[in-house]
Specification:
This protein is of the alpha/beta class and 205 residues long. It has one domain: P-loop containing nucleotide triphosphate hydrolases (Rossmann fold, 3-Layer(aba) Sandwich). The chain has five helices and eight strands; from the N terminus they run E-E-H-E-E-E-H-E-H-E-H-E-H. It has helices spanning 25-35, 86-93, 110-126, 155-162, 181-200; strands spanning 3-5, 10-18, 45-48, 54-67, 70-78, 98-104, 136-141, 170-172. Strands 1, 2, 3, 4, 5, 6, 7 and 8 form an eight-stranded mixed beta sheet that branches. The structure holds guanosine-5'-diphosphate and magnesium ion (MG).
């Protein structure tokens, strides 16, 4: 749940990057950290196990400046995707305001994407949240591999697998090259702020 301080005209909200292990959540945050220097408000904190698998989570605070007279601060988190870290995912989801579901375009990860989306659905439900209501955006990551020999799913296939019922905005992306990373985040922030506006009417004078 966002912190809305109308007296100081300050809003702080929480966006979570969700998805299976190795789909590119941390790489998204790395890219944002490197590229959107003006918006970044602090260090990126990553709690890693050995190598690049996230045991716990990554955290990056950003600021969007003023919107309708309110100072907007955003906390970006990632969850660990591996099945065994379910309790950490539930913890990170606490108080979430918007979600980016990062799906891996590699054909071999098809099942993992679907499992992870189901896991998101269940964990949101446990937190009293509805996947159909919470601001949600899909990212089909690793599209840069289209230029290689690696077998990828088509975007249409991924839409059918993951977005047939939800019908949320979706973006092909590459967290490595940065293609689609900003667009995914911007759309999520727009949806989230619209949702919060409805909930809190914070922009009312
Ligand atoms: N080619 C390619 N590799 C990617 C992309 N995003 C992530 N990776 C690689 O996939 C691996 C896992 O990425 P990571 O961000 O750690 O995944 P996470 O478990 O979701 O946080 C790393 O080796 C990344 O370099 C992408 O868009 N394209
Ligand atoms: Mg990670």
């Amino acid at each position: 749940m966002a912190t809305v301080n109308l007296k100081n005209r300050e809003i702080e909200c929480k966006i979570v990057y969700y998805g299976p292990g190795r789909c590119g959540k941390t790489t998204n945050l790395d890219y944002i950290h490197r590229t959107f220097k003006k918006q970044v408000r602090g260090e990126m904190i990553s709690i890693d196990t050995d190598g690049d698998r996230t045991l716990f989570f990554d955290f990056l605070p950003i600021g969007l400046g003023q919107i309708k007279g309110c100072d907007i601060k955003v906390q970006l988190y990632t969850v660990p995707g591996q099945v065994q870290y379910r309790s950490t995912r539930q913890l990170v989801l606490k108080g979430v305001d918007g979600i980016i579901f990062v799906a891996d375009s590699l054909k071999v990860r098809r099942e993992k994407n679907m499992e992870s989306l189901k896991d998101l659905h269940e964990n949101l439900k446990k937190a009293g949240l509805n996947i159909l209501r919470i601001p949600l955006v899909m990212q089909y990551n690793k599209r840069d591999l289209e230029k290689t020999e690696m077998p990828l799913m088509s975007v249409e296939q991924m839409e059918r697998d993951l977005n047939r019922q939800l019908r949320v905005p979706s973006f092909p992306a590459s967290a490595v090259t940065g293609q689609g990373v900003g667009a995914t985040l911007t759309q999520t922030l727009k949806k989230t702020l619209k949702y919060l506006h409805k909930e809190f009417q914070w922009a009312q004078e």
